[in-house]
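#struct-help
A.M.: can someone run this one for me? Single chain, 558 residues.
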Amino acid sequence: MERNGGQLLVESLLALGAKKSFGVPGESYLAVLDALHDTKGRLDFVLCRNEGGASFMAAAYGKLTATPGICFVTRGPGATNASIGVHTAMQDSSPMILFVGQVGTDMKGREAFQEVDYKAVFGTMVKWAVEIDQVDRIPEILSRAWTLAVTGRPGPIVIALPEDMLTSLSEAEPLSGPLEVAEPAPSAAAMQRLRSLLEGAKRPVILYGGCNWAEDSARALQHFAEASNIPVVSVFRYQDQYDNHSPTFCGEAGVGMMASVKELLREADVILAINNRFGENSTDGYTLFDMPQPRQQIVHVHGSDLEIGKVYRPVLGIHAGPNAFAQALASLEPVKGEWSEWCAKGRAAYEKGFDLPDLPSPVDMGKVTALLNDILPEDAILTNGAGNFTVWPNKFIKFGPKARLLAPQSGAMGYGVPAAVAAKVAFPDRSVICFAGDGDFQMNCQELATALQHDAQPIILLLNNGIYGTIRAHQERHYPARVSGTTMINPNFVALAQSYGFHAERVEKTSDFAAAFERARASKTGAVLDLDISPEALTPRQTLTAMRQAALAAKETA
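D.P.: on it. Structure tokens below:
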């Protein structure tokens, strides 16, 4: 049976288990769009409004499901627009495959219309960038791409699809079934060495990260940590992978790291680091551990051997996936040591972090997040982009074992809205709440149309303070009282959201939030709540004015 390249590609994706794809159409891959016409209900194409939004959706879908998020965009401008989601997937270690249309093979190298060298453009931000020039090789290259995306350190793949290749005919058979690759597992000797190191510890800490944890594996890690009474810390924006209600959970090592978390990591003598890559934000700018040989004895467990020793030299590197390692940990006898006060102190500091003063704002986000902790369903999915507002979902929400957080380690503004749409596409019956600043929201608010078209409308909490908060904070610290380029004039967000079919309302005081949120939950078409936030309440514990005054005082005494 002959198929064209588009049909061969789509049938192979179906065989691998792809169910959703995201994209913006382009004439460069019409053959693929035609093949997708026949797969509705099996492999759906979610039509997006901008390639950046589409790639964010694919990155978030991969992070949420641990299967590659599939994205289709056209050549040149479509590909460069989509690059933001690719970079985010890489820093998140999220599986993703971006398919990009390409000029015909007979035109390559001439700087044809919208021609781009995809290997050169994407080479440093993906696990593999490849172009398929021969139609018969589609199954082979797609199989390799899918495998690379989900194994080792998961991440994005970019595949360029020349237009004439997609319309060529082939007798090659599509892939015939899903991929199954067992994670690398730790050796018995490695587990015994780990046990010996933990038994000799006085102040052990478990530091974990990554999105590719199975539910039973997260429970196995929690069981070991609780049985051994070892404090547990999440890397930046992965606190949802461990039950925050556990007496061993002590917080997140990320932007705005609590002093107690810094103390735990700095004063630990043994750190069991599982599935993390020792990024800048989770090491407080690479200051918590000496480079390259930390004073702390680090046991680094990772599914990719390329991550072990990449930044810090461990005393023991274990090449193992998080799930295989967690299962091995479950069979290890709990380690008993004299560190119960150490763990209790870390937990008490984490709990104390939820105590906040009243904020100088019409809507007090401290009280809003306290309410959400009480009323959100246990399997809620929270999303956010980037900005000072992210402190609220990242530091003041407790994630139970079934809740999820989709937030970019790359610090990409505009991620939250597309991520929330992707979450609703993946799990339409779950509550999805997006936190967005007014600047962050406007990066991708056009994707509300995608949500409307595909019946995937989340609830969006729009923290509207009229400024680019993070940049203003740095501005006031370094150039106090010299505001430049950080104040916004905003549209009528309620009218904007309503034009996209969303329920929308302005919330102007804290006491009105609970009832407004209930109306949002009752809405069948999602909701946007425009929250009146004062610029003064830029951080949970320091006002904008206090920030400015402190910086001016420092300048006067310098």
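A.M.: thanks! The longest strand covers residues 96-102.
D.P.: also worth noting: The chain has a mean pLDDT of 96.
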